[in-house]
Amino acid sequence: MTHLKQARDALRADNQRLKQKGGLVGHKTLLKDFEEQLDESEEMRLRLEQLQKRHSELAVMCDGIKKKIETAKQLEAEAIANR
Question: 15 exposed, middle or buried (CB, 10 Å; 0-12, 13-18, 19+)?
C-alpha cells in the first residue's frame, strides 16, 4: 500500500510539473483570453498610429492657419500705419 501511495504522489508531482511547463496549452479559457488580448493590443496599436497621423495633419493645418493670421495682422498693421 505504501508503494502505491508513493507512486501516486510521484505521478501527481509529474503532472503538476507538466502543467507548469505546458503554459496556456492546457487552459482553454486563459488561452482564449490571451488571444483576445493580443487582438485587442493590435487594434489599439493601429488606432494609435491613426491618431498620431491625424494629430500630425492637424498640427500642420494649425501652423498654416497661424501663419495666415499673422500675415493678416501684419497687413492690418501696415494699413493702419499708412492712413
Answer: exposed
| pTM for the whole structure | 0.60
Which three cell numbers, joined as nine digits, stand for 5?
501511495
Query: How far, in Å, CA of 71 to CA of 82, rounded?
Result: 16
- 8 A C-beta contact, residue 25 and residue 31: yes
Q: Where are the alpha helices (DSSP H) in the chain?
A: 2-22, 28-81
**Furthest-apart CA pair in the chain: how many Å?**
115
pLDDT at res. 18: 79
| Cell numbers at 22, concatenated | 505546458
The distance of Cα 21 from the centroid of its chain, to the nearest Å, equals 28
